Input
Amino acid sequence: AQTVTQSQPEMSVQEAETVTLSCTYDTSENNYYLFWYKQPPSRQMILVIRQEAYKQQNATENRFSVNFQKAAKSFSLKISDSQLGDTAMYFCAFMKHGDNNDMRFGAGTRLTVKP
Amino acid sequence: GAVVSQHPSWVICKSGTSVKIECRSLDFQATTMFWYRQFPKQSLMLMATSNEGSKATYEQGVEKDKFLINHASLTLSTLTVTSAHPEDSSFYICSATGLAATYTGELFFGEGSRLTVL
Output
């Protein structure tokens, strides 16, 4: 079974600064996807960034980038130039390729961006 | 991206009654839908997976007789909480994927439904 671990229950960052959220996972699979989702107070799940395991290049979406270390099974999220609107719960998630898109989530990290 | 809509967004019911939550894919055919439960300040826990036209597959510890899931069409799945009790109060989220998305790892989430059982 796949497990996803987020070891930082809460984090805070000053507006305009950079913050990194940690995520590790455990799997014996070689082909899979990793995700970071944002859940603001509205509770709507918003996809932040997605990484295919077969790609060595780290995914980037504007101010969001990941550091994907496949051998170490690590998938951290870096948020640059943090904005007040980035305040939310962030979930790291794992999906095995071809497994009916069954997604498993970490416990989440509550990020607060301070003005 | 594809749109998934849940209804109702919030519901309050009396203990012992049944509540139905709908999850609709608005612009694609959802071959598979997932139902999650989320307690306050906690993560999403997968309850069950449903494929169109088939019986749902429940996760260990989830009572299938309590949480009835129906996926009768390619655009609609329903979760019925039967004989609801206060401990069933939670936030329920559905997600859906289509045939094409199965190969790209895409999953589309509904807005969630907050159930409060008095």
